Amino acid sequence: MLYYDQYHVPETLDEAFDLIHTNGGNYKVLAGATDLLPWAREGRGGDVNYESVIDISKINDLSKWQLQGNRINLGANVTISQLLNNPFLRKHIPVMAKSAVWFADDQIREQATLGGNLVNASPAADATPPMLAMNAELTLERKQKGKIIQRKLPLDEFLTGPGKTRLEAGELVTRVECDSMLGYGSAFEKVGHRRSLVLSTVCLAALVSLSDDGQEFEDVRLALGGVGPVPIRLKESEACLISQPIDSDLIDKSAVLAVKHVQSRTRQEYRREVVYNFVKRGILGACKDLNTTFADIDTDMKHRGNYG
């Protein structure tokens, strides 16, 4: 169970940083608490005690978003529900809506935040592969000698291992910036022990843009989670398709290249088969999302016994 002596609800970043400074090291920052509360129970974290809990969910600046050039700037407190339902966000980053469908249930989506999902640094986090595919960059802030100091880190550099990040003491993730994906088709694939309310065994985000005639891959972005210590971009799989014709053999090669990234300690062969099929299905699904059909592409996801 979660215990605390004081519960603070700051309304500005300045107030939040002052509370962080005042409470030294014995505090916990939360926004939606959808990871903290399930962890603070018997069998996991047990009884968890903090002198202070600092709830940043009421800081309005962290719940806003805007388009800046071809990038979307999102406050860290944007909820998974907003990613699923807001028309502007669905237009510019639709893969996040496709990911959010798989995210727990309606009540949790209303509470859970994008920043919290990324900071939690789960290898199987649903939001991380889409954000990696969209070249996400995090803004980290802290207060030092009365001034707020800001730095930025690409998401792939921020994540260092299961539950581990480059977030320093006294810092908060305040914003997440990513590419607008207008003109791209997208797909999100996930498998777990159940359809929802479950951590991913494997999840994949796929983003595709095509040439004007619809016959070549102009850009391909693939990101994979649940198979290693951190979610990753599948750079080799992407490179073998970019500027190439849409061809079933090339898509198969891209899928085969992906399976070597499975580093899980359990169910490796199962995960390899899932990754192989997910890459194929994700690429084809992203193509179809552009209202393009390819009758000559084999969409039959068959068992593949030899991954090379």
From TrEMBL:
<keyword id="KW-0560">Oxidoreductase</keyword>
<dbReference type="InterPro" id="IPR051312">
    <property type="entry name" value="Diverse_Substr_Oxidored"/>
</dbReference>
<keyword id="KW-0274">FAD</keyword>
<dbReference type="InterPro" id="IPR036683">
    <property type="entry name" value="CO_DH_flav_C_dom_sf"/>
</dbReference>
<dbReference type="InterPro" id="IPR005107">
    <property type="entry name" value="CO_DH_flav_C"/>
</dbReference>
<dbReference type="GO" id="GO:0016491">
    <property type="term" value="F:oxidoreductase activity"/>
</dbReference>
<dbReference type="InterPro" id="IPR036318">
    <property type="entry name" value="FAD-bd_PCMH-like_sf"/>
</dbReference>
<protein>
    <recommendedName>
        <fullName>FAD-binding PCMH-type domain-containing protein</fullName>
    </recommendedName>
</protein>
<dbReference type="InterPro" id="IPR016169">
    <property type="entry name" value="FAD-bd_PCMH_sub2"/>
</dbReference>
<keyword id="KW-0285">Flavoprotein</keyword>
<dbReference type="Pfam" id="PF00941">
    <property type="entry name" value="FAD_binding_5"/>
</dbReference>
<feature type="domain" description="FAD-binding PCMH-type">
    <location>
        <begin position="1"/>
        <end position="183"/>
    </location>
</feature>
<dbReference type="GO" id="GO:0071949">
    <property type="term" value="F:FAD binding"/>
</dbReference>
<dbReference type="InterPro" id="IPR016167">
    <property type="entry name" value="FAD-bd_PCMH_sub1"/>
</dbReference>
<dbReference type="Pfam" id="PF03450">
    <property type="entry name" value="CO_deh_flav_C"/>
</dbReference>
<dbReference type="InterPro" id="IPR016166">
    <property type="entry name" value="FAD-bd_PCMH"/>
</dbReference>
<dbReference type="InterPro" id="IPR002346">
    <property type="entry name" value="Mopterin_DH_FAD-bd"/>
</dbReference>
